Automatic annotation (TrEMBL), chain A:
Protein's UniProt name: Cysteine desulfurase
EC class name: transferase
Function: Catalyzes the removal of elemental sulfur and selenium atoms from L-cysteine, L-cystine, L-selenocysteine, and L-selenocystine to produce L-alanine.
Cofactor dependency: pyridoxal 5'-phosphate
Record keywords, A-Z: Pyridoxal phosphate, Transferase
Domain Aminotransferase class V, residue spans: 24-394
Family: Belongs to the class-V pyridoxal-phosphate-dependent aminotransferase family. Csd subfamily.
Keyword Disulfide bond: no
Top-rank lineage group of the source organism: Bacteria
Catalytic activity from the UniProt record: (sulfur carrier)-H + L-cysteine = (sulfur carrier)-SH + L-alanine
InterPro entries: Aminotrans_V_dom, Aminotrans_V_PyrdxlP_BS, Cys_dSase_SufS, Cysteine_dSase, PyrdxlP-dep_Trfase, PyrdxlP-dep_Trfase_major, PyrdxlP-dep_Trfase_small
From TrEMBL, chain B:
Protein family membership: Belongs to the SufE family.
Source organism: Neptunitalea lumnitzerae
Pfam families in UniProt: SufE
Cross-referenced InterPro entries: Fe-S_metab-assoc_dom
Fe-S metabolism associated domain sequence ranges: 11-130
Protein name: Fe-S metabolism protein SufE
Length: 406, 140
């Protein structure tokens, strides 16, 4: 059982009002809210040991370095990576993907193929298109069904000895579909292709085990799992991280520099040029601790309860259609919907007036919207600090907006 | 009526409403009176960028005045463009170029629109003025 009242007290922002109404925050898939222990970690850093890391011999630098590296170990343990140096701190999922895409420039040739799923966020499409432009590789797409589920038979037929890389999100940001990543990875490895899984949407709900998955790269952002913005991670298997060239040059990532030649630092520093977001990394660790203290099993069970409740209530509204899998066990706590004849933008504006935060638009996944021939959807995404009472407010708000807009 | 007189008229109409819901309902009503753009002009060229919803605007010169027509796939956006066009349509290009748009604030529209949506509004005003500048050049 989740101690919901105690949990809500730990999120100061949940006390505020919007347009004179208590805030109902259902845009968690874009950014989750920040609990007091994470805010405290940020304040503690700036109040007590703000200093540059890995360089200074002075006490503050040493303390900051220790905390930053402790955070890396927390992330390593959370995702069950074999080694802490397989965790690279980045500015977020997009940055992590670009790091890998950039690294593969020298490893791909014309005629090689890259496979991406039809369910991707733009940030897991555009970097690979750019990689294809640089290398002459071809981008192939795993199609999806009308229910927003990947067509695995089609995927199998796309795989060949030309396939070098496969990219897929663990959970779709636009529809909430949980993809069968274990099968995707195993099949890709059958043709010796590397796999990158975008865990941005999965990480707040599901504890991924990178060794059990045998995934080559797994990426996620702190700000979707109770951490700060501008902070993310890349897990890469040691063998791959050693193969990839550095992403950016600068301080921290070097072993030795002369004007003739630079030798690069060992992992993970090879990929961490310049002064990183030290406070962000430490706060990311605090966020992971916070979520693990509640427990991912508890979080998943409670969110599923919210999802089922909201699905049933919303579907009772006339003309409302939910996009994505009908089976709620195949979904994260995300509901992407439209009401017949009502533009999602209009719905979003009215809901905001009622203090309800949802996302409207194409969710940076235009190919998915084109597939359903819609301009966008209204997306309500739930977190473990949301309640059924808030869902009732959403449902009443959607009905009220529909009456106004029809 | 001058642009300013029309704007004042709109402000007065909106001041009759006590709450946001009535204002939005009125805006939606105004959207229904929008002079609709012909389907042939609903092209990508006439689309205004920077809006979450689609907004098409067409302008033509009738004598020395500009007539605007428009449409949107979202009805709140349609109301917003209808308000702008009511103020700017059948006016001389020079007057449109020089018109200020503070009345948007006065009817309590802009303060309720988030930056991204406000950008849509700003893009609409910019586009109407761009048409006016283009026709002014033609008239010179």
């Amino acid at each position: 059982m989740i101690a919901i009242e105690n949990i809500r007290k730990e999120f100061p922002i949940l006390n505020r009002t919007v347009n004179g109404k208590p805030l109902v925050y259902f845009d968690n898939a874009a950014t989750s809210q920040t609990p007091q222990p994470v805010i405290d970690a940020i304040v503690d850093y700036y109040q007590n040991y703000n200093a540059n890391i890995h360089r200074g011999v002075h006490t503050l630098s040493q303390e900051a370095t220790d905390k930053y590296e402790e955070a890396r170990i927390k992330i390593q343990k959370h995702f069950n990576a074999a080694n802490s140096y397989e965790i690279i701190f980045t500015s977020g999922t997009t940055d992590s993907i670009n790091l890998v895409a950039n690294g593969f420039t020298s490893l791909l040739n014309e005629g090689n193929e890259i496979i991406v799923s039809a369910l991707e966020h733009h940030s897991n499409i555009v970097p690979w298109q750019m990689l294809c432009e640089r290398t002459g590789a071809l981008l192939k797409v795993i199609p999806m069904t009308q229910e927003g589920v990947l067509d695995m038979e089609a995927y199998k037929s796309l795989l060949s000895d030309k396939t070098k890389l496969v990219f897929c999100n663990h959970v779709s940001n636009a529809l909430g579909t949980i993809n069968p990543i274990k099968d995707i990875i195993t099949l890709a490895h059958g043709v010796n292709a590397a796999v990158l899984i975008d865990g941005a949407q999965a990480a707040p709900h599901i504890k991924a085990d990178v060794q059990a998955l045998d995934v080559d790269f797994y990426v996620a952002s702190a700000h979707k799992m109770c951490g700060p913005t501008g902070q993310g991670m890349l897990y890469g298997k040691e063998t791959w991280l050693k193969k990839l060239p550095p992403y950016q040059g600068g301080g921290e990532m070097i072993a030795e520099v002369t004007f003739e030649k630079t030798t690069y630092a060992d992992l993970p520093h090879k990929f961490e040029a310049g002064t990183p977001n030290i406070c962000g990394g430490i706060a990311f660790g605090a966020a992971i601790d916070y979520m693990n203290n509640i427990g991912f099993d508890v979080i998943a069970a409670y969110e599923h309860e919210l999802l089922e409740y909201a699905t049933e209530k919303l579907l009772a509204i006339e003309g409302l259609r939910i996009y994505g899998p009908k089976d709620t066990t195949q979904k994260a706590a995300v509901i992407s919907f439209n009401i017949e004849g009502i533009h999602p933008y209009d719905m979003g504006v009215i809901l905001d007036k009622l203090g309800i935060a949802v996302r409207t638009g194409h969710h940076c996944a235009q190919p998915i919207m084109n597939f359903f021939c819609i301009p966008g959807t209204v997306r309500a995404s739930f977190a473990f600090y949301n309640t059924k009472e808030e869902i009732d407010i959403l449902v009443a708000g959607v009905e009220r907006a529909a009456n106004m807009l029809r | 009526m001058t642009i300013q007189e029309i704007q004042q008229e709109i402000v007065e109409e909106f001041s009759m409403f006590d709450d946001w819901m009535q204002r939005y309902e009125y805006m939606i009503e105004l959207g229904k009176s929008l002079p609709l753009i012909e389907d042939e002009y609903k092209t990508d060229d006439n689309l205004i960028k920077g809006c979450q919803s689609k907004v098409w605007v067409h302008a033509s010169l009738e004598g020395d005045k500009i007539a605007f027509t428009a449409d949107s796939d979202a009805i709140i956006t349609k109301g917003i463009i209808a308000i702008l066009i009511r103020a700017f349509s059948n006016q001389k290009p020079k007057d449109i170029i020089e018109a200020n748009t503070d009345f948007i604030d006065e009817i309590g529209l802009k303060e309720h629109l988030s930056p991204t949506r406000a950008n849509g509004l700003v893009s609409m005003i910019k586009q109407l003025k761009m048409y006016a500048i283009a026709y002014q050049t033609q008239l010179n």
